[in-house]
Structure formats: structure tokens, C-alpha cells
Design goal:
Helix 1 packs parallel to helix 2 and helix 3 packs across helix 4. The protein has a single domain, classed as TIM Barrel (Alpha-Beta Barrel), CATH 3.20.20.150. It has about 290 residues and is α/β, with parallel strands linked by helices. It binds zinc ion (ZN) (2 copies). One zinc ion binds next to loops.
Length: about 290
């Protein structure tokens, strides 16, 4: 797996690749804008091209853009639906401009309308955003959910049902979050458990459709349905859950990024990432 982390963009989006490099990332994830705001000024072409240049300079091999948490494609509320679809379209445009492989998206919540309706809404929303950016290569990568409330995509079956509905088959893939998997009740810490997970990914999403990983330990126990991340090896998932995944040849060229808690130290917020990356690297077998 190619390892990296989610990097903040407060120092300018175009500088984020250097921050990533400085802490030892091979790949990275960013928000392409303030993720708590619906409307933002468009990304200037100079900024996008500076980002692409700096990515090469920093030797970062792949970038994923995490979509804003405000977006809920699963909603049946017409106003929120419209805003969510437009915001996703803008996310795709920005991600394409900076050369990202995909926009990582939480599928959404049906908020009481039921799973079937929620899935319909998500599929239609994704379809609209993909059609509006039909010349682009950038993908939507649906992320598995921990299972809180009415969020969808907590089982791999449900996640694949959401993804399979798109006509833009090549532009739809998945991001698997290790914490969310564990919180949703999938135990892959044992060899047998990991084997079952891989079989189930193969049968539902398709191994080649998993294009990104979020590498997070879990703060709460197996099946908690709580989306709370812990630093690697310090949570309930523990190092064993990561060891098998990191040494799985199916995912040897797939990007995997940390979204673990950052340090309190204001001058060195990513010290914790450095430690987590070190832990992850220590779990990779060297082939000797
Ligand atoms: Zn995640
Ligand atoms: Zn999470």
C-alpha cells in the first residue's frame, strides 16, 4: 500500500504536497476548500496548476479529495438535495483540476425516508454530478460508513448497491475506512476474519474497485457504530488489523491515508502522523 495522510490546506492548497512530503507521505488526501461552507470562490487555474507542479516536485504519487461533510446525497429534502448535488459537482471539478484520482464521499443518510429511497437518491445525485462533469476522469469513491443513525453504506453489500447504479461505471469506485469497517461489526483482526473480509470485498465491491483506504484505528469496540478514530495501534482494532491489510498484495499499489487524531502541539500538529506512519511501515514485511 502507498501510505500517507490527510493534510490541512490552511497554508494554501498548493503547499500541501510539501507538508505531506515533510512528514514522509507517499500519497495524500485534502479537502479542496473549507469543508464547512457550501459556497466558496472557484479554484483559480494558477492555484490548481501550482498544486500539480508541487505534487510532482514533492514526489507525491496520488491525491484524494475528501468531499465536504455538508453534502448528503441521501436526503429527500429538495433544497438540501439540490445543494448537495451542486456541491458534489463542484468537488469533482476541483478534484479534476488538481489532478486527484477521486472525490471520497460518504454516501449519505436517508434521515427516515428508508434505505431504498436513500439509495435511489444517492444514485441519482451521483449520476447528475458525473454527467455534469462528463469529460473528466476523476472518480466518485464511495466510503463505507460506521453505521451511526441512518447513514448508508455500512455494509459492503449496501455500498456496492449504491455504486453499481451509475452509468459512468469507470468513474465510480470505493474507499474503505478501516475504523468504519470495525465499527460496523466486521472483525478482520484474525487471519480467518481477514480472509472473510477479502472474500466479501471481492464478491461485493470488486477488489479492483477499491481505489483508496482510510487507515484509522477505532476508539470504540467492534460493532459500536461510532465513527471515532484512534491513532494506529492505540485503539480497539490494534496493529493486527493493519498488518494483514498492509501486506495484502491485492492492495500493494492502492493509496491509504491516515485520518487519525493530530497532536496538540500547535507547532508540530503532524507529529502524531509521523508516529502513525512509522508504526504502519513497521508492520509491512520486507520480503526477506
Ligand atoms: Zn474516513
Ligand atoms: Zn470516520
Amino acid at each position: 500500500m502507498l501510505l500517507g495522510a490527510h493534510i490541512g490546506i490552511s497554508g494554501g492548497i498548493e503547499n500541501a504536497p510539501f507538508t505531506a512530503r515533510s512528514i514522509g507521505c507517499e500519497v495524500m488526501q485534502i479537502f479542496s476548500k473549507n469543508q464547512r461552507q457550501w459556497k466558496v470562490p472557484p479554484l483559480a487555474e494558477e492555484t490548481a496548476s501550482a498544486f500539480r507542479v508541487n505534487l510532482v516536485k514533492a514526489g507525491i504519487k496520488a491525491v484524494g479529495v475528501h468531499a465536504s461533510y455538508l453534502i448528503n446525497l441521501g436526503t429527500s429534502d429538495p433544497g438540501l438535495m439540490r445543494k448537495s448535488r451542486e456541491a458534489l459537482t463542484e468537488e469533482l471539478r476541483r478534484a479534476e483540476a488538481i489532478g486527484a484520482i477521486g472525490v471520497i464521499l460518504h454516501p449519505g443518510a436517508h434521515v427516515g425516508a428508508g434505505t431504498a429511497q436513500g439509495i435511489e437518491n444517492i444514485a441519482a445525485g451521483a449520476q447528475e454530478a458525473l454527467a455534469a462533469t462528463s469529460g473528466a476522469k476523476v472518480q466518485i469513491l464511495f466510503e463505507n460508513a460506521a453505521g451511526a443513525g441512518s447513514t448508508m453504506g455500512q455494509s459492503l453489500e449496501e455500498l456496492s448497491e449504491i455504486g453499481r447504479r451509475s452509468e459512468f461505471e469507470k468513474r465510480v469506485g470505493y474507499c474503505i475506512d478501516t475504523c468504519h469497517l470495525y465499527a460496523s461489526g466486521i472483525d478482520y483482526t484474525s487471519e480467518a476474519g481477514y480472509g472473510r473480509l477479502v472474500d466479501s470485498v471481492r464478491d461485493t465491491l470488486g477488489l479492483e474497485k477499491v481505489r483508496f483506504f482510510h487507515l484509522n484505528d477505532a476508539l470504540f469496540p467492534l460493532g459500536s457504530r461510532k465513527d471515532r478514530h484512534a491513532n494506529i495501534g492505540e485503539g480497539t482494532l490494534g496493529k493486527e488489523g493493519f498488518r494483514r491489510l498492509l501486506n495484502d498484495r491485492n492492495f500493494q499499489a492502492t493509496p491509504g491515508v491516515l485520518e487519525t487524531p493530530i497532536s496538540d502541539d500547535k507547532d508540530h500538529p503532524y507529529r502524531s502522523y509521523e508516529k502513525d506512519l512509522e508504526t504502519l511501515h513497521s508492520l509491512v514485511r520486507t520480503g526477506r
